[in-house]
Specification:
27% of the residues lie in helices and 16% in strands. It has helices at residues 5-15, 22-34, 47-52, 98-109, 140-143, 166-171, 188-191; strands at residues 38-41, 61-69, 114-123, 127-135.
């Protein structure tokens, strides 16, 4: 049974994640570590995944690779006369996914473009690497394409900072709706513990 070209492209990338592609994966990560945090690419590393999330090989599209430090982004310990309570290190959890942070960094590096989507390409013990697809909202080929010209509308300006991308929608808990998902949305007013209010006696 034959499959599409992108099926074989995806299979070849998955082979680099196993023992067979350890040498190629090691060489890639060594090269990626030496590059800048945001690096512009000529073509996507995972063509099948890039096409699935909206990439097209035409004018107005741009692919960048972003490097993000893994973990909870904890600050280093401060050796000084201070209470540990006030260091600002403990109990500081990350509320955004690393993929969403990568998209925001790409947007800050290219403020005249808009983030369309992103996907994972690799990781090591300290960093994760994502490729972010960006679109030029004023490019003639983008404005003439009815499938993507919606990104040039004013409501989509700065969409990555308002959680309108795929990673932002997932982080805001909007992937699931209906009964049973009442506490999926990270709303402080909805998910906080009920406040015990002392009953006060009203004196007439």
């Amino acid at each position: 049974m034959t499959g599409s070209m992108y099926r074989y492209v995806g299979r070849s990338f998955r082979q680099t994640l196993g023992d067979e592609g350890a040498a190629l994966r090691h060489e890639r990560l060594l090269t990626w570590r030496r590059e800048h945090t945001v690096t512009r690419l000529e073509r996507p590393t995972r063509l099948d995944r890039a096409r699935a999330v909206g990439y097209r090989a035409k004018g107005g599209y741009l692919v960048v690779r972003v490097r993000v430090r893994r973990g909870g982004q904890r600050k280093r310990a401060i050796i000084a006369g201070r209470r540990p309570k006030h260091k600002g290190i403990l109990r500081m959890t990350l509320l955004k996914s690393l993929r969403r942070i990568a998209e925001e960094r790409a947007q800050k590096h290219y403020p005249n473009l808009e983030v369309l989507n992103s996907y994972w390409v690799g990781e090591d013990g300290q960093q994760k690497f994502y490729e972010v697809i960006m679109v030029d909202p004023v490019h003639p080929e983008i404005l003439s394409d009815p499938r993507i010209r919606w990104i040039a509308d004013p409501p989509h300006k700065g969409r990555v900072f308002r959680g309108l991308t795929s990673a932002g929608t997932e982080g805001r808990g909007l992937r699931w709706k209906g009964k049973g998902t009442e506490r999926f949305r990270p709303s402080r007013a909805r998910n906080r513990r009920p406040i015990r209010r002392t009953q006060t006696k009203v004196i007439p």
